[in-house]
Specification:
Elements: E1 8-13, E2 23-25, E3 49-53, E4 56-60, E5 66-71, E6 76-77, E7 80-81, E8 90-94, E9 108-110, E10 116-119, E11 126-130, E12 137-145, E13 153-162, E14 165-172, E15 176-178, E16 181-183, E17 186-193, H1 201-205, E18 213-215, E19 232-239, E20 242-249, E21 252-259, E22 268-274, E23 279-288
Parallel strand pairs: 1-5
Antiparallel strand pairs: 1-2, 3-4, 4-5, 6-7, 8-11, 9-10, 10-23, 11-22, 12-19, 12-23, 13-14, 13-22, 14-17, 15-16, 17-18, 19-20, 20-21
Length: 291
């Protein structure tokens, strides 16, 4: 897209790097001063998406005077980041629990085209993480349980700092009590914040929370559990102090959770499961969003 003689703001969000301040850039690409006020006519359609180049997606700010940019994990095409390749730049973190007799590690198998991954085992909790941190992003994708076995926990993590500090979205198919506590049916949004290892089964199982993993003040449109062999579209809006998670089945809302928690302002994203085999994730996209 050609630039006019006026100034525009490029608020560059590079995945994996600290976000720089907004920089005013003129038609020749020169820095015009970081403290200058933005004025003049609207330069883009608010909330519109475009590819700035083959590697960068941009979203127009709601004020219409700035493009918010993000480096795409798999390139940019058709005005949006392409789906992420899950075989490159991703790694598994396996949680080790002290009170489990026979520990089983998670096993993620990535499809040949790299656009989907399946966790195949009834395993201890694990996160399959993208190795770059994000801030002010919209992450979308699909998830399903491709088996009729079991009724346990699926979901994803985000804002991941390390194995002791992160946000967790988990979803239980049916209420179940055990020696680890009670995991209630339905979706939940939690925050993990611990000084030491999160290594008790109750930390990941008990819906009312523990000293290390606590439920957030949330609102959900539903408390229903997930269904076998059913594809769900998920959408995560992760902005500093503004979290929104939407789950849909065939375009119909199944669950919506919101929170203004600001414990973590940026961090990594990854898939999550606990004791649930056959969890399939696919077509994951990361896009810039409004701050």
């Amino acid at each position: 897209m050609a630039m006019d003689a006026n100034f525009f703001v490029a608020d560059v969000m590079m995945a994996g790097f600290d976000a720089p301040a907004a920089v005013r850039v003129d038609a020749f690409g020169e820095d015009a001063g970081m403290d200058a006020a933005v004025d003049g006519p609207v330069r883009c359609m608010p909330d519109a998406l475009r590819c700035r180049d083959l590697l960068t997606a941009e979203r127009c700010a709601l004020t219409g005077d700035a493009w918010l940019a993000l480096a795409c994990t798999n390139g940019c095409a058709d005005n949006a980041c392409a789906p992420s390749v899950l075989s490159s730049g991703w790694s598994k973190h396996q949680f080790e629990l002290q009170n489990v007799a026979v520990p089983v590690a998670a096993n993620y198998i990535v499809a040949e085209d790299g656009l989907s991954a399946t966790q195949t085992r009834k395993s201890l909790p694990a996160a399959y993480l993208y190795e770059q941190a994000f801030e002010a992003v919209e992450i979308t994708g699909r998830m399903s349980v491709q088996t009729a076995d079991d009724d346990d926990l699926i979901g994803f993590v985000f804002g991941w700092q390390d194995p002791q500090n992160f946000y967790l979205f988990d979803w239980k198919k049916a209420t179940q009590a055990s020696d680890c506590g009670e995991a209630k049916v339905g979706p939940a949004l939690k925050v993990a914040k611990a000084q030491g290892a999160i290594d008790q089964c109750a930390d990941f199982w008990e819906s009312t929370g523990t000293a290390k993993v606590k439920p957030l003040a949330t609102m959900s449109t539903s408390v229903q559990g997930w269904k076998n062999n059913t594809t769900y579209d998920f959408r995560l809006l992760f902005r500093p102090g503004n979290i929104r998670i939407e789950i849909k089945e065939a375009g119909v809302a199944v669950a919506t959770l919101v929170s203004n928690d600001n414990t973590f302002m940026r961090g990594k994203f990854g898939f999550y499961s606990y004791l649930q085999p056959g969890v399939h994730y696919q077509l994951v996209r990361v896009q810039p969003t409004q701050r």
